[in-house]
Predict the 3D structure of the following.
Amino acid sequence: MIALGSFLLSCLVLLTLIIVQTVAKSPFSIFTLLLVPLITGSISFALFWFIVERFINKKIKIIYRIISNKKITDDNPREFKITEDVLGKLTEDTVYFAEKQSSQIKELKEQAEFRKEFLGNLAHELKTPVFSIQGYILTLLEGGLEDEKVNRDFLERALNGVDRISNLLEDLDEISRFEFEQQTLKIKKIDIVALAKSTFKELEQKAAQKNIRFQFAKSYDSIFVKADEGKIHQVLVNLINNSIAYGNEGGMTTVRFHDLDMEKSKDGKGKILVEVADDGLGIEEKHLPRLFERFYRVDKSRARNIGGSGLGLAIVKHIVEAHGETIKVRSTEGVGSTFSFTLERT
Ligand code: ADP
């Protein structure tokens, strides 16, 4: 466009020179006739080029200032050359910025939703024990304290409520330390088979109340892994506790170990998969993707009564991931559930 304009201007100058030459009857040299239009054309070309480029960039900078939150001077190649497809590039960038903005908005909305849900859940979790403690204390104050038949019982029930709140706070504290990355793992060589055996022992009595038995899938020798013993113990306690809480009367909890990397495991390296399986209630498939979220419960009222703080699996996931490993769940409603996580062999 600019080239065409400059060419036309050169022609115009040439025409003017020819007219002037004819009217004044004083011929210009061929040199003048060629050079003057050429110089005029070149100057106008350069001038127009400069003006148009400045104009486009000025306008476009305004647009970029509106759509981008980055400082324009830092922004990738946002000085336009008029030789390029300015509008095409601008459209491309606008679409890119619009998509970026909309994904940011979506993320912020999800975070806001998550915060709301979290606060609601937390309030609900605290409300139940606080109201029950309040009820017992009021009854004691209104005369129950003097009644030998109820005073001890009510105090014990109030204490249960306090224990529940304290467990909840401890679990929340644990999660927030993981989320703020303030947890440092004490990684050392541990025997995961021995750890599972001692966890079985600890929870034996609890399981016996529901006639649930513990077993290993087969007899295992020691398997040494690199892990934080206290934290992995907590993972096993939470998973085995759940297998009891959501297990059937007279059921079975099975712990299994698999070598994942057969080649490497021959010389004692590679991954080991630890599985905790039960033949209990099982979980409907639609719940599985959200199971490890804080306070997520399949059957809310039931789980609140038989389960813990609702944070057990969230803590388990944090611990496993802090080890750089993964945890998965397989489950079929009415058949049972299997939670499996990996650990690194030493
Ligand atoms: P809770 O304190 O409610 O047990 P968790 O985070 O440990 O919290 O578990 C979250 C939910 O996952 C439970 O409420 C329960 O619905 C479900 N769940 C966990 N483990 C099992 C299991 N072994 N069998 C069936 N459902 C389970």
The mean pLDDT is 87. Residues 262 and 270 are 8 Å apart (CA to CA).
